[in-house]
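Tutorial, part two.
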Amino acid sequence: MPLLNNEDFRTNKNKTRNREYCRHCFNGGKFLDQGITLQEKIKENIKFAIKRRESKEQAIKMSNEVLPTLKRWKK
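Running the prediction step on this input gives:
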């Protein structure tokens, strides 16, 4: 999801704005989908992107390229 406006973000635990994750994934200092695997998240994001009228090919490409690079999935 493009993170362009303040409305795209939510907050950390201390109420400051979190600028790493979108409002669909993160709020109040925690992920809204705790326990999900990276592969499950990729599948969810592809479905979400298609609903937003992105092409399936673009959704697959972006999800597979971007999600694994997020700090959440680094080990």
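The first strand starts at residue 9 and ends at 11. In part three we will examine how such features are distributed along the chain.
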